[in-house]
């Protein structure tokens, strides 16, 4: 609430200040428009000479001295125009219409012609030659009458760059800073300001451009200022509305905040319970998977037991057969012979003296081959039994159930 009130107060003060600045800008724009309008009409300002000139034009061409200047030294122009003063606006007519213009000039009211000059063309032409080295050389014009007037008023003074030199000179002297020595005294004159200068078309054109640029700048500032004022007014209105709305909805916001905090705490508790349940389910799945792996291992262990028993049986059988063959070969054990076989052997032996020897060699070789085969079979069976025993011991674990 305090921030909104501060913003509202700041906007009110800023709006008041900007409105004051806007009014000042409007006044400046109005002044520049008047000056610019005068310059666009070929006038240096709104001097009374131009109103009188307008009335004299019915007799023929009438000019103002300042409008006939074609060139001037910019360093000396401020003090030259100060010396000439009101004579800068001297009205100049042709010799042919001078008498008619003079008659009207004398008939005008004192207010219209106060401190106003009307040139006498014949007298001005007598000073048409410029005095060498004089202050009149600093100004140029193409009008013979204007030339004579400038020489008459400026030709008796000589320019000096430094004030000390002008003060000690034996002639009438003047400096750009306005130090003038004449008639045994030293005088100070204040040069005119740049905005007060009226001599020459170039000067007027430059001033016209400056005024035009300044007018554009003032217009842009006024537009920007108008936008700022509008935004500040909107901000002030928004701040006022925000203050009213904030006071109205603040209790609701506090109640909503309390309910939201309670809901967040409840949601946090439910989330923790869900996470615990998820952990228990995951644990059950891991236990079930472990039991499946245990059952698979036990199945493989049973098969290994069965294979081991089979291999041990084969080993025992192979060892029994080997012992029997060995005993037969050594003549220690003889089984019953089939009926009629002995007589056949006797007949064969009677027919061939070497028969008995051949029979003995054959039996001996057969017994040896069977013995070697039994040894290999027993070795293989023993190896397999050893491997099975190792696997059995590795997978043998206490049943967790």
Secondary-structure map:
Layout: H1 2-40, H2 48-56, E1 62-64, E2 69-72, H3 77-84, E3 91-93, H4 98-107, H5 110-113, H6 121-125, E4 139-141, H7 144-154, E5 158-159, H8 163-168, E6 173-174, E7 179-182, E8 185-188, H9 201-329, H10 341-351, H11 355-395
Parallel strand pairs: 5-6
Antiparallel strand pairs: 1-3, 2-4, 6-7, 7-8
Helix pairs in contact: 1-9, 9-11
Give a brief description:
The chain is an alpha+beta fold and 401 residues long. It has helices at 2-40, 48-56, 77-84, 98-107, 110-113, 121-125, 144-154, 163-168, 201-329, 341-351, 355-395; strands at 62-64, 69-72, 91-93, 139-141, 158-159, 173-174, 179-182, 185-188. It has a domain at 290-401.
Descriptive notes:
The protein has 401 residues and is α+β, with helices and mostly antiparallel strands. The protein has a domain at 290-401. The protein is 68% helix and 6% strand. The protein is built from eleven helices and eight strands. The protein has helices at residues 2-40, 48-56, 77-84, 98-107, 110-113, 121-125, 144-154, 163-168, 201-329, 341-351, 355-395, and strands at 62-64, 69-72, 91-93, 139-141, 158-159, 173-174, 179-182, 185-188. The strands form three sheets. The chain has a four-stranded mixed β-sheet. A two-stranded antiparallel ribbon has the order 1-3. The chain has a two-stranded antiparallel sheet with strand order 2-4. Strand 6 (173-174) and strand 7 (179-182) form a beta hairpin. Helix 1 crosses helix 9 (201-329) and helix 9 (201-329) packs across helix 11 (355-395). It is elongated and about 180 Å long. Mean pLDDT is 76; it is low at 332-338.
